[in-house]
């Protein structure tokens, strides 16, 4: 013979009501957390060293932005400010540079570096070759400098803590909502 067992869960109706109101509780807190993540990215970008993020003109660092919504965030480099950011980040393969308008490439070539004198002393040397002209240039390519991935990696622990804090706020707000409804 089957026996019927009834379990009365106190606060179940209030919990259902709080979960129904969950978006009203959670979305503003999640939106604030997403906004804060942008500040975390910007702070870590500002602390990034020249070895990780080239800073000849400062345009690359200036191009780093963060856009966000209630449940999404995007850390990116604005191509209108630094169109070369992708090539710095991902590097380039060896390639040939050809003239597009004229029949040759012309530019000022200054070579800087350290040299050694006959006595064995090292010194900084700047050799100005003046204007040089080439029909083509065989560029050796560049090594990737994944500065955005490094900034994101450095930001990860702080972002994780921020979202854990947000989750704690959401659960405590729902718990208060359930307790006050009883």
Overview of the molecule:
With 182 residues, the protein is an alpha+beta fold. It has two domains: 10-92 and 142-182, no CATH class; 93-141, no CATH class. The protein is built from five helices and six strands, in the order H-H-H-E-E-H-E-E-E-E-H. The chain has helices spanning 12-20, 22-46, 59-62, 85-90, 147-181, and strands at residues 64-68, 73-77, 95-97, 105-116, 122-134, 137-139. The strands form three sheets. The chain has a two-stranded antiparallel ribbon. Strands 3-6 form a two-stranded antiparallel sheet. Strands 4-5 form a two-stranded antiparallel sheet. Helix 1 crosses helix 5. The longest helix is centred in the last third of the chain and has 35 residues, at 147-181. The radius of gyration is 29 Å and the shape is elongated.
Structure at a glance:
The chain is α+β, with helices and mostly antiparallel strands and 182 residues long. The chain has helices spanning 12-20, 22-46, 59-62, 85-90, 147-181, and strands at residues 64-68, 73-77, 95-97, 105-116, 122-134, 137-139. Helices cover 43% and strands 23% of the residues.
